[in-house]
Amino acid sequence: MKHTKEKVLHLLKQSTAILSGETLAKELGVSRTAIWKAIRELDRLGYQIEHLANGYRYLSSNVLEPEEIAFHYLKEENIYIHASVDSTMNVAKLATMNPAPIATPALFVSEIQTQGRGRFGRDFFAPKGQIYMTLLLRPNQTFEELPQYTLLAAVAVASAIDELTGKHSSIKWVNDLFLGEKKVGGILSEAMSDFETGQISYVAIGIGLNYAIPSADFPDELQAKATSLFSDEAPKVTRNEIIRKIWTHFFELIDGLPDTSYLDYYRQKSFVLGRQVTFTQQGREYVGRAVGISDKGELIVDTTHGQKILSSGEISLSHIEAHQ
User: What is the torsion angle, in degrees rounded to the nearest 10, for the CA atoms of residue 99, residue 101, residue 106 and residue 111?
Assistant: First the structure.
């Protein structure tokens, strides 16, 4: 059963007109004092409601809401918003252990991550109010049959950033998103298998995206390395809009398979192609120039020791030369 504040919020969202306290009270069958308290609570929760002499009007807000994220591929009842979690990846994995199978696709989003991590277990800076989310899928395929989810997600995020912000993002092989020379987000994909059938039972795709962090708020060691979509400017779009656009693009790409034209976009967006990179393979450090990305998502690097094919599951680039 919805509380008064939720009913008030719904009415305000549905109307472009200014709604007086008296109108809201009559519509909901409550007192004007109850409406005033509901408005105060909505203000406290972060909703942007314009207080005018003749009533109230809803303004675009940055509160995470399932109904603002949902679309035909991703149902509202399958979107779970949390105030704080250790990591959305862990929450998604725990959901797969429930006795009753969870409906998928399911999206887990949180205001705060206390133990967020990236590839190879690396920790990352995760202040409140950014975008931390994990999509849970049930593909029921073998590992060999799985799409290249990390690459698909990277293309979806880059497309959403460019479309909604007007900025030009790039993708650092294999899973990092950049604006200019600074990282703005990252992706982590993990598969869970059924040992009896050999099928992949679930895939979890985690995305962390810096939404609005003032430049001065980044730790000293990240000042030259990290940024956010809106570092020193007012956000042009809400987190809900960005999240929805990312997954809209993602599912459109999934629907388009086996078409692999997304790989061309991934290559065009590459942060590393044409640059000198440093990496370690089988305990030996190599320096070479990144010259291509294979149809399997592998990075092709020319070195003095011959051409090396780097797998994303095994290799991490330790250094990339800056653009001159």
Answer: 0
SS (H, E, C) 1-25: CCCHHHHHHHHHHHCCCCECHHHHH
| Segment 179-203, tens digit of pLDDT | 999 999 999 999 988 767 778 999 9
Token pair of 220 as six digits: 């000293």
3-class DSSP state of 314: coil
Q: What is the pTM of this model?
A: 0.87
| Cα 299–Cα 301–Cα 305 angle in degrees, nearest 5 | 140
Amino acid at 115: Q
- What is the rounded CA–CA span in Å between residue 70 and residue 243? 9
User: How far is residue 243's CA from residue 246's CA, in Å, rounded to a whole number?
Assistant: 5
What is the crossing angle of helices 32-45 and 21-28, to 10°? 100
